[in-house]
Amino acid sequence: MLTDPSPRVTDGRYFRSVLGNYPTGVAAITAVGQGGEPVGMIVGTFSSVSLDPPLVSFTPTKDSASFKALRESKSFCVNILGEQQEEICRALAVKGADDKFTSVRWRPADSGSPIIENSVAWIDCDFESITEAGDHYIVLGAVRDLAISKDSPDLPLLFFQGGYGRFSPHSRVMPAATDALEQIRFVDMARDHMESLAAELGMECSAVAPVENFLVRLASAGVPPNGGSPVRVGIRLPFEAPMGALLVAWADPATQDRWLDRGVPRENVKERDRHRDALERVRAKGWTITLFSEGFRSIDKRLENLAADGPTRQPDPHLSQLAASLNGPDAYERDEILSGETYQVRNVSAPVFDSEGNVVLYLTLFGFPVSTRGDRVLDIVARLVETASRVSDAISWAGLRKSIASAERRA
Questions:
Q1: What does residue 292 show for φ and ψ, rounded to 5 degrees?
Q2: Rounded to two decimals, what is the model's pTM?
Q3: Cα–Cα distance list, 215 to 15, 237, 306, 315, 336 (Å)
């Protein structure tokens, strides 16, 4: 039997203040009115509902004049607003205004509903159902088309404690996956170090670890300084030669052979020997560098396209094909970096070890200028190696403490 609610529940202002501690994204719901004019409203209640069939929802108030105009259309478009679109948000949130779209640039979706320029993403929908729920409606939309905007600011506008704000990520970590829990535990010990390094250098630092036969970007901190989008976490990459060399450079020959088997045919003895020689040089140097090439540009483009699909448990087969086209060990073990020369650096990476000397993940820095002097590259590498060493120490100490605790329990 239901009990009577607390007086706090029936206090509307208090109810809103408590629920306001849950941050929400800000979406503009747009449509074409009966007269052919664009109509729209701002909501903080947009949500994904179902994948099969694809459904989304939002919950307008029953007395909303904007929703009254919207529901006269057969379709609507959800525009996820970006952190730089607060003015657009305020314009569309004004009650009773007839000229909301005067300063809003948009183009029509296939349904005719406005897609707002530079929104983070848009979802074009048909009205599926409208259900009464207290003083609101629950509106279900059947998704007909959707996309991430090419020129989006990437980070969304948020509504929190009664005001608009921005998402300022210190680091991004992939959701828990049953086959990556141990690796995520290691990354948790690396996050503070990654955030400090990214902030110091004004670059982006990612953590990559092996999960079965895949490489997985488990976490990332900072943003690239060149205006690019942060790397997406959770995407699985092929763990095969030449990808992931740092993870096998300190491994036993059998592990190295398995890595080579996944990327280089056994009959190609000469190429396999080149990789083994390169792995020895990686061990001696303690880090790797990747310069931009057409092969890596193709990989980056493919990763950018995959980002729209979100994390997946399976790697993209095209990535394996692209990885195989890279220039063998030259893809990760370059000639000596000269102080006075300039380089087009894609990324540099350094290994992180556990207490037993196994490489459990590696840290990677992205966001180099188009051309970087060799002395600057080497300075950045030195800071990366130092940071990776500190993470190794943290993981080793955690392992030692765990071993001591286990021994004490047995005693």
A1: -65, 140
A2: 0.71
A3: 45, 5, 15, 9, 26
